[in-house]
Amino acid sequence: MFRFSEIKKSFLVALWLMFLTFPIMVIRVNTIYKTIEWRWERMFMVGIGAFFLSFLWRYLHKKKEAGEKKAEEAGTLPLAQRLIKNRQFSIPAAIGLGIFIIAFPFIFSMYQTNIMTTALIYVVVGLGLNIVVGLAGLLDLGYVAFYAVGAYSYALLNHHFGLGFWAALPIGATFAFLFGVILGFPVLRLRGDYLAIVTLGFGEIIRLILENWNAFSFGPSGIANIPRPGFFGMDLSLSQSITYVYFLMIGMAIFTIFVVKRLQDSRLGRAWIALREDEVACQAMGIDKTRTKLSAFALGATWAGIGGVVFAAKTTFINPASFTIWESIIILCIVVLGGMGSVLGVIFGALVLILLPEYLRAFSEYRMLIFGATLVTMMVFRPGGIITDVRKTYKFKGLKDKQPTV
Amino acid sequence: MKPILEVTNLTKDFGGLRALDDISLTVGQGEIVALIGPNGAGKTTFFNCITGIYPPTKGDVAIIPPGGKKIFIKGLKPNHVTQQGMARTFQNIRLFQNMTVLENVMIGRHCRMSAGIPGAIFRNPATVREEKKVVEDSYGVLEKIGLEQFVNEYAKNLPYGAQRRLEIARAMATEPSILLLDEPAAGMNARETKELDDLIVRIRNQEKISILLIEHDMKLVMSLSDRIYVVDYGKKIAEGPPMEIKANPAVIKAYLGEELDA
Description:
The complex is a heterodimer of chains A (about 400) and B (about 260).
Chain A: H1 4-26, E1 27-30, E2 35-38, H2 40-74, H3 79-85, H4 87-107, H5 110-135, H6 144-161, H7 165-184, H8 192-212, H9 214-217, H10 238-264, H11 267-277, H12 279-284, H13 289-315, H14 325-338, H15 343-359, H16 367-381
Antiparallel strand pairs in A: 1-2
Helix pairs in contact in A: 1-2, 4-10, 5-10, 5-13, 5-14, 5-15, 6-7, 6-8, 6-13, 7-13, 11-13, 14-15
Chain B: E1 3-14, E2 17-28, E3 32-36, H1 43-50, E4 58-63, E5 71-72, H2 78-83, E6 86-88, H3 101-109, H4 117-122, H5 125-145, H6 160-172, E7 178-182, H7 190-207, E8 210-214, H8 218-224, E9 227-232, E10 235-240, H9 242-247, H10 249-256
Parallel strand pairs in B: 3-8, 3-9, 6-7, 7-8
Antiparallel strand pairs in B: 1-2, 1-4, 4-5, 9-10
């Protein structure tokens, strides 16, 4: 089963890792007694671990390649899409999921519900970024700026004019939309890395303005006492309010999924994908590049704005520290990890990336390590994301008898 | 014969380099015209200039759709040129790889549709009708080109010859009155080239689309075209029917090489 060459390879890998980790894993200087401890047993552990892991790695790699070949030959859909197509599975699963979603805040603690709400905000925001990055192929690293625009719209409008959540929601979304257009204009000619740099700059500009323009945004101290969303003027206790925001977010997530799904299979959605695939050909086929790009930016930003308003209402306190580049990266990771252009993938990605760190608090020291390792393994084994996007297919009469001739 | 495309004195400079020098060209209604020349002569630059991908330095480009008025298209954006009825294919295949064959063709229909963001979200009856019609029309185009068996296949999975044909199908979906083909037979074998020959003639005869093509396959050019323009170093050196071009000493010298003179 194992060929000698493979054992040799793994052995060399183990040897190399033992050598590399030698200074940090084996040597420890005791500064008090001024002695050096040699922890040789650790070196063996590294060696044995590396040996087996490299075997596992190669095994998975082979399996993946075989699987790809098989899928290509059979022309089958990826697992997730197959499960959805299968009615026997999907209908009970959907009912079960529905019950779970409704029962969630009553089964689990307030803390859990709160985390879930956060994850749902990221689902909405991630789906928004999915329009920009996944569909239109415009790498946006400053996406969190629109999130900040939404959050500050609500916070400031409430502070100065006493506007409630429901009035601020459309206004925040509109502001984010406008900012999307404002950012969209100067970057119309850019793509790829250049676009990424400019959007990164834009994100930082917004954050720095919020941090330094004290008269406008109250600087780093932020804005406190933002009211939670009202429910027909009723006074809600804290736990009621958290449950309410949770259901609000569920509704919003469903609304977002609905809209994004419809956009994806529309005239505009196709134009976005064409823009992603080939800008020159897309224009030559009669698609207005300017409008398509701007609409992608603006629509993507709108969802961030909505997410931002809810975020402000949920936490009741915002300051610029919530809108750093790190947030942009997390949202981007959600889209890339979940599967670019795939709605299901982004939902899954958001839930995994936001919930997992919360439940892995026990290993919080290793959180970043796990996060990084996950990303690397992902890109090696599933470069298209956890759930890859599958394009809509159409059925035609009389096509069945014809077989593809190559 | 009424002209459908009129290019007059087209000049294009890239910095100090004159890529196109005072080229005039007309394509008549229902004509198949070929543009030939050695590598680097400026043929593709010419296509890029008249379709709006590069702005020309000087000169004018106009299309006269059958039964319509003359429209000057110089300086228009590529998408507006396409809207006015001039579609093109590319020398190096530029399909939308991760879209299905049908969707590729549906992109071609984009500029003949009107649904916007509200239409996409609310799916009002007009949008649904439009969408249905687009699917049917696009399928119709695929049937004409003979690609209907690949309809739900990803464009990247198509065999090479079919990818070339899909480019033509996509361009035809924009309802052009003139079609520009940039080396449609590049990389095709003899059988595929013959099929392409038939296809181009069929497009002209049945769809009433005039054709301007760049091609290196001399056999195809000679059998297919009504008239031929020859460019070399950005200058037009000859024009006329295939027989004349074949015998033109300047063309032989520039294009086929001097040793053939002997």
